[in-house]
Structure formats: structure tokens, C-alpha cells
Amino acid sequence: MKNSLVRKVYLYFVIIIALTLVTVGVTGYWRSSNELENQYEGLLTQIVDNVLHETDLFLKSYERATLSILISPVVKEALDLPTNSTSGFYTSEIAMKGVFQPVLINNPEISMTYIVGYNGFQATDFNVHIVPFNYKGFEEYIEQMKENDDINGELTIQESGFLDGHLTLIRKLADRTSSKSFKGIMGFELKIGELNTLWKGIKLGQSGYFFIVNDRGRILYHPDPSRIGKQLDGMHFNTVEANKDQIFELPGEPGRVFFSRKSDYSGWTLVASMSVAEQSKPISDLRQTTLFVGIFTLILALFLAYRFGQSIVRPVRLLENGMRQTAKGHWTRVPLTGSRDEMDQLITSYNTMVTRLEELVERVYETELRNQDNLMKRQLAEFQSLQLQINPHFLYNTLEIIICYAVIQKSNEIKDIVRSLSYMLRYSIRTDLEKITVANELKHILYFMSIMKYRNQREFEIDVRISADYLLDSMVRLTLQPLVENVFKHAFPEGIEDAHTIIIDAWKDAESLYVTVEDNGCGIDADSLLQLNTRFLNSKEERLLNAQPTFEGSIGLLNVHNRIQMVFGQQYGLSIQSELGVGTKVTIRMPSSTKKVMPV
User: Fold this and answer.
1) 77-105: per-residue pLDDT in tens?
2) How many Cβ atoms are within 10 Å of 573's Cβ, its own excluded?
3) What is the dihedral of CA 569, 570, 572, 577, to 10 degrees?
4) How far apart are CA 263 and CA 56, in angstroms?
5) Which stretches make up the Histidine kinase domain (predicted)?
6) CB within 10 Å: which end of the chain, N or C, has fewer?
């Protein structure tokens, strides 16, 4: 079926799983690749900064070494000698060697140190024996340094030293009185191999490298020794100068990225390079891993979604087939799946429903058969009821004739008895009014007491304390008179005495109207009272099945209790309080209402 539930469930699962995988995979790959790129850029920047920092520290350490020479009195004495004076030169040169020796010992990478004064003084010392030493070339080199305006009182680094494979660390010695008046030149010849050793220890991946150029584009260091000392290509040098402190590409270097930074101390520019392929390899691996894992997860999720959908649809189909058979009249019960989940609970509920429906249909069928059998009996009873309606009218007419004869015979007693009996009979057999007013019930008791006066051969008044505000409230017909009659039968078994009283009272709360009938008769023992109140609390069906009286007169009380509950509901009815030898109090609870009912 095109619109089957299994297809819908499977389709929804496919959409949800695919959307989730695509969203998580793409987002994760995008975020991870960005993070990796940022990490590579940060790593490249950090390596360049570390190399520059280590190089500057290396060079600055020799600047501190020159200070020990500058503050030496021997240096001051030698530079202060008269110009071209040969006296004391030899002595000063010997003393200068004593100043140079500690520096050379502590810094074995310095091959040569020297001081040349403008007064003609010259002192040199070597860490190694240099043979032959070109003194003429050295003097020419010193003359060039004197004329170089870039060299001043600060330590200056010359990439091309006097000695091959060396750097020259040189500074001019100023007069104490004027920083612009120079008295000589002091320099070190430093083995560039020491820096090469430092630089070779820096690794930039498998194919990464870096090189160092000075401010004129001359290559000071390169992993390819053949390029050291050569000039960097002009276009490359311009690109490096224009893209300092950022990632860039060099013309003619495809597939590589570069980062450059210039040292403020040495003036050198360090350029680091990494392969784009090597940099992007983790990203490519991440992409492949994400793709493979996503495809595998999708296949596994689709399989699980299919199994899950089947686990839901299979019981539904069983229920559907069972309902189709039940609709045809075959009471079919569905077997449980054995999973003990909500589907099994649903199947159990369906089987229970089928069982109850089957029982209900059979019961309805049997009831229908009984109803057909009772139909004739009901019609016969209605016919007999129509016939019996003649009898009350006959009784009313007869009682009226008796009253007429009592008037002719001037017998007021007979007239009162018959008139009260006629009212009570008419009030009792009416079926059109089930709920009447409290006033109607009290009027009925009035006629009842009129007859009891002649039966007991004495006057007896009931103490009615019901407020006039409650007289129009509704109550069930024939509820007070049976309670009063029950008092005369059972509360006063030895007859009525002057001390006997019957009190009828009423009150209300927010929901109920309470009417009480209280006497000071013999009372009820505790066991009988408990049984009677228990029967009041039981269901109507149980009271009807167990209609045996707990004591004489309880049937009348149960009748009143049942009629109240049939009219107002199960929460209403009678309750009894009694103490043996003290008296009994019967309370009627009914819903509070001020609705007026047509009096009888």
C-alpha cells in the first residue's frame, strides 16, 4: 500500500537520520577544518616567533659580553693614548689580551675579537690560530667600518664578516663627554655555524622549512646551503616585505604558504614555509573519516529503523486483522508479541475489550429475549393498573360519604379521623410529585398526629423547631411521617408518657439541608445501631439483596433512605445517633435548595 504505516515510519526515520548525519557531519567537518587551519597558522606564527626570540637572545648575549671589555680601565687607557704615539702601545696591547681572554674562553664560538682606536692603537686576539692572517685586508676592512654611518655606539650585526663563515658584531667606542665623538671600533668575529646549529633544530613538518634574509634581501640562512649568501629574487623579496606578519604565497612556489616576521633587534626577516598539501592532510583525513563513518552510520541506522518500524507495524497489523474479523462477527483475539512493552499492553487491552464485548453482546441478547417475554406481562400490568386507578376514586368518594354521615350525626371525632385519613391517603398515592416542600411534609405529619390522638386516647404535640426560612426547601415525599411513626412504634414501647418528646429541627450548611427527628425514648443498642448505619453506607443493590431487618422497623428506615438516594444521589440519605435509655436522633441529609415546589 502506498500510504502504509511502515513506509511512513521508515520514510520519517530516513529523513531524520539523514538530516541529523548531514547536519552533524558538515558542521563538525567545517568547525574542525577551521580549527585545524587556525592551529596551523598559530603553529607557524609561534615557530617563527620562537626562532626570532632565540636568535635575538643568542645575539644579545654577545652584547653583554662587550660590556665587560668597555668598562675595562685598560681599554680606556689604550684609547686615550696620543695619536700615532708608539709609547706604551706594546704594553697596552699585551694588557688588552688579558681583557680579551675571559670573553674568548667563555664564548668559544667567537673566533676573533679586536679593538682599533682612531689614535692608531690596535689590539686583536684569537680563539683559534689563524694562518696566515691578512693584516692589510683587516686594516681595509676597519677603514670601511669607520666610514659606515650605520655603525654607531650600539652593537651592529654585519652579515659578512672579515673572516669567511663569520658574522661581525661591531660597535664604535664613543668618548665619555660626547656620544657622537667616537674614539675607536670594537668587534667580534662570530662563527655563523653556531646560528646554523640553532636554526637547523627547528622543524616545520615533513616538508616545511624557513630561511632568513637581511634588510637588503641577502639570504643569511637557508636549508639549502647553496643559497646561503645569495640575493633573494627581487619579486620574492618585495612580496616578503609587503606581507610581514601574515600568511601569503610566493610567486613560482605553488602549493606552499609562507609567513614572515622581522626582528626589531637584528633587522633580519625570518620567512617560514609549509606545504598546503601537508597542512590540509589532516583536514582531508577528517573529511574522509567523516564521510566513511557517516555512510556506515547511515546504513546501520537505516537497518535499525527498518527493524524498529517493523516492531511497531507488525503488532498494529495483527490488531488491524483482529478488528477486521471482529467487525465481521468473529470474536478474534490477537496473540501477544512477547516484548512486554506498550504494544503488548495495547493487545492485552484489545483482547480484554473483545472478551467483554462478547459477554456484553450475549448478555444483551439474553436480555432482549427476556424483554420480549416480559413485554406481554408489562402490557397486562399496565392494563391492570388502569383498572386499579378506579379504586382510589372509589375510596375517596366513600370517605366523603362517611364524613357527610358524621356531620349529620354530629360526630366530630369521626369527621376528623376520616378527613385526616383521606388527606394522608391522597398524599401517599400521588406519583406526580416526588420532591415536595418541607411545609408539605409537616402538614402531612399534622394529619397523622390527628389520627394518633384518637388512637392513643390522649393529646401529644410534636416540638417543631424548623425555621420559616427552610419551609419552602425541597425534600422527598413521605420521609418525615415514617420516622415519626417509627418513634411511636419503637421509642415508646410502653406507651406515651408526659415526659416523652419528639423534636423536629432543621439547619443548613454550604451544600446540604439537614432535617432531624429526635426523641427521648428507649434508644437502640450499640450492635444494632452499628449494623443499621453500616447498611445505610452500603450500595443500593446490597441493601436490596440483604433486606433482612437488623431490628424491627429498620425496613421502613431503609425504604426512606433508598428513596432519598434515588432522588438526590448516593451521597445523601439517613444517619442515626442513639444511646440506649437516652434516646435516638435520625438525621436526613438532602441538597440545600430554596426552589419552590407546588404544594399538595
Assistant:
1) 777 777 765 555 555 566 677 777 788 87
2) 22
3) 160
4) 8
5) 407-594
6) N
